[in-house]
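User: Before I run my own analysis I want an independent prediction to cross-check against. Here's the chain; please return only the structure tokens and, at the end, one sentence I can use as a sanity check.
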Amino acid sequence: MNFSQILMYVPGIIMFLVGTNQTKQFILQNRKNACADGTVKSCSHVQKKDSKERDLYNYYNVSVTYTDPKNNHIYTKNVKSPAPYQSGQSVRLYLVSNDDRISIISQENEYPMNPFFILIAGILLIFLALAENQGKEPIAMLCLAGILVSGGLSLILEFISLKNKQLEMLDSEIIDIYTRQVSKESKIIKGAKFTYYPIVSYLIDDVENYRLCNVNSSIESTFKIGEHMPLYYSHKSGTVTEKHARLGLMLLGIILLGLGIAAALSIITVL
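Assistant: Structure tokens:
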């Protein structure tokens, strides 16, 4: 097996690992009594810089009150967060299993695709590379058809899910930028790499809320404080999302699904 053949496995392995991690998070957060609704009592900014004005640490200490669904006891705990929260703001909490720790779920299922379909696509990409390297073209084409079907179904189900939430557009204003360092400067990498996330403020029932957005950029000037961003609010579920039901993605999903089914049927008839 040469180097180019080995490289063919890389996309599938990456998708498999991403899908595995996201699927694990999804399953853990949807276990019985794994999550609870909480209310922010207070939020304070904790920041310390070195002599060169670089952040040693920079986070928000958020005090949250919630009722534990396991025993119905009321607790108040502190959570470290990269983004601020407003006093009185409602938050969704993940209760770490067999632990006293909690974490704030800042984006609810804001995955580019359903994690189960990402996992399936990763597995199929690995088998596609294996079949290609072994010269089994019909099997490789079946794997490709499976990837198209998985992608199409994921987009269609995502559209239906968002449509059922009955989302309304919500105006938000960028109040700060959260900077996450991705890599440090080294002999190989020239300059440190950063990812920038907008922190926005928005109103729900005249109550101000803050949110660390899922959308991000590697270019610092992409987001500017004072600019406005659309969010989408569901009165039905009380959740806020950055995505809405776009007809274009629905049509793309139908096209991918149709191509995948057509490809699979044509290959099956040949075998």
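Sanity check: The two ends are 27 Å apart (CA to CA).
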